[in-house]
Amino acid sequence: MEPRFDLMANDLGAKIAKRIYNVALAIVDSPLPRVTQDLVMLRASQINGCGFCVDYHTKDAAAAGETAVRVNLVAAWRESTVFTDAERAALELTEQGTRIADAHPGVSDETWSRVREHYTDDQIAALVSLIAMINANNRLNVIIRNPGGSYQPGQFADMAD
């Protein structure tokens, strides 16, 4: 499968991608645990069918020391015992925040309450922003049909301002 369009080869596309990457860096530097960030990005990417992002976030999670068992069970987190209550709350928020367009009623009060139990205001700001940003990235990559399989951990490190 070949991409429809090389966003990075286009001046405007590269400029936009760099801005998006810098927003991602602000989230990475937030107090939201990195492992939670990896799980959230992977789950949203699975839901959205973004092969490039599933490849990216699977490999980054592994490079950061995440176990294969946990990475493989993200898609079935509800039926798994390997995630903390805080991670489960974040994954539930990710699913509800990602499926808004699927006639989902949005984020339930119960889910929001579970998130509030486990995360500070700064962590919630990062978590909500992360969910929004990964969904935007998924859509960019799915629209241009950017395939998974070739990502190497750290390959975008030179994009930062």
UniProtKB/TrEMBL annotation:
Pfam families: CMD
Matches recorded under InterPro entries: AhpD-like (IPR029032), AhpD_core (IPR004675), CMD-like (IPR003779)
SUPFAM superfamilies per record: AhpD-like
Gene3D superfamilies hit by this protein: AhpD-like (1.20.1290.10)
GO molecular function: peroxiredoxin activity
Domain spans labelled Carboxymuconolactone decarboxylase-like: 17-95
PANTHER family hit by this protein: 4-CARBOXYMUCONOLACTONE DECARBOXYLASE FAMILY PROTEIN (AFU_ORTHOLOGUE AFUA_6G11590) (PTHR34846), BLL7811 PROTEIN (PTHR34846:SF7)
Protein name: Alkyl hydroperoxide reductase AhpD
Organism: Embleya hyalina
Phylogenetic lineage: Bacteria, Bacillati, Actinomycetota, Actinomycetes, Kitasatosporales
